[in-house]
Amino acid sequence: MKTKKLILLLTILFLFFLFSCEKEETNLPISTSGFISTGTWIGDYWPTEEWRTCTPEEVGMDSEKLDELNDDIQLLLELHIDVHSVVVVKNGYIIAEQYYSGDYGIDSLHRIHSCTKSITSALLGIAIEQGYISNENTLMTSYFPEYEIENMTSEKQQITLKHLLTMSAGLEWYEVEYLYSDERNTYRQWISSDDKVKFVLDRPTITSPGEEYSYNTGISHLLSAIIEKSTGTKTDSFALKNIFKPLGIKDYYWPIDNRGITYGGNGAKLKPRDLAKFGYLFLKNGMWDGNQIVPENWVETSQQKHINRKYIPNYYYGYHWWVSNQNSYSAVGYAGQWLIIIPENDLVVVFNNQFTDGDDLQMRTPERLLNNYIIPAIK
Fold first, then answer.
1. HEC string of 331-353?
2. Dihedral sign, CA of 117, 332, 186, 154?
3. Which of 99, 153, 173, 249 is the most exposed place for a label (fewest CB within 10 A)?
4. What is the C-alpha to C-alpha distance for residues 13 and 9, in angstroms, rounded to an integer?
């Protein structure tokens, strides 16, 4: 076992120094107790009030393999890679869970960054179901008659909500091409703008709608503005009524921009267990305790491979979800926030972290941990 851990440590050290820069040392309080859950599987239920726990073996998983996941994370922490928490849910029960940072615990709100986009998408589906919006094929510009939109072209006039949902609007936007600290990053320019809706609407078109994927947080903010215009309700309040309260999510944080519009693409904070609830809602096809919270057809459409993800191999983009070639789909956020849903295995996994901007090795760590330990743990 010591030899195996030594080999694993040397491998991680090699990869870390190959792909990332050295970080300053920090003191990281590490909690190592109780990673593997205890308890017995006693039947199906809805975790509205609280999650139940059971041993991995109760739901057909291997505790020893999951312990190797925890061992790997301990080595990452020794390298000062800031893993904050992991929650593994199988068959509706938490089978493994740990909080590794002294700044966050089981009841702490954690910033989920762009995982916010997947919640905004779900809310748009609900707004369509409730009749506030006709469908995702309606035109983007029809919702903003108060603006004199710059760089108006026939292509821009054809942008639909579906193009926004799939990040294929064709607008000029460079968010993943540069670090967020780089002045050339369009997101950085957008976040400093006085009118964040107009900033997005005014962007030039460089490709035809639906032709090419381009990651664009501003697009998600437009969707939030459209939800607010259509429902007459703030996006966070619409979420509270239609998702958070039904799921028993009592604590959350969701900021607004300087014009009072709820940020549609980033900024929300949830407890890791509550983010897992949102994932479990989608795992159950939008159903919760006998009520259809998110339309089933919207859940199905959201996880389809609508367009290839630029720069990310083996991933497509759904309706604000990352869709992989391995029968899973995920909500993914800056600094290593991952909500992973694997329907065929009845599995939901949440990772919260604080990874270094631009470090691809760190960013893909949750995916590596999933494929190396969690999936192999399924008996």
1. EEECCCEEEEEEHHHCEEEEEEE
2. negative
3. 153
4. 6
| Residues 88, 98: Cα–Cα separation, whole Å | 9
List alpha helices for 232-376, DSSP H: 235-239, 245-247, 272-283, 296-302, 360-363, 365-369
Sorted by sequence, the CB contacts under 8 Å of residue 115 that are 6+ apart come out as 268, 275, 331, 332, 333, 337, 339
The partner residues of 347 in beta bridges, in order of sequence, read 90, 342
CA-to-CA dists, residue 229 to 132, 140, 243, 262, 318, angstroms: 9, 12, 19, 12, 24
* CA–CA separation, 36 and 40 (whole Å): 13
From residue 182, alpha-carbon distances to 175, 176, 177, 358, 362 in Å are 10, 11, 10, 11, 20
pLDDT digit string (tens) for the chain, length 379 residues: 545 555 555 444 444 433 333 333 333 333 334 899 999 999 999 999 999 999 999 999 999 999 999 999 999 999 999 999 999 999 999 999 999 999 999 999 999 999 999 999 999 999 999 999 999 999 999 999 999 999 999 999 999 999 999 999 999 999 999 999 999 999 999 999 999 999 999 999 999 999 999 999 999 999 999 999 999 999 999 999 999 999 999 999 999 999 999 999 999 999 999 999 999 999 999 999 999 999 999 999 999 999 999 888 889 999 999 999 889 999 999 999 999 999 999 999 999 999 999 888 898 899 999 999 999 999 9
| Three-class secondary structure of residue 70 per DSSP | helix
Q: What angle separates helix 115-129 from helix 217-231, to the nearest 10 degrees?
A: 30
Contacts of 166 (CB under 8 A, 6+ apart): 210, 213, 306, 307, 317, 318, 319
Cβ neighbours around 5 below 10 Å, total = 14
For residues 256 and 263, what is the distance between their CA atoms, to the nearest angstrom? 5
Q: Which two tokens stand for residue 116?
A: 């916010």
User: How many alpha carbons fall within 13 Å on the CB side of residue 144?
Assistant: 26
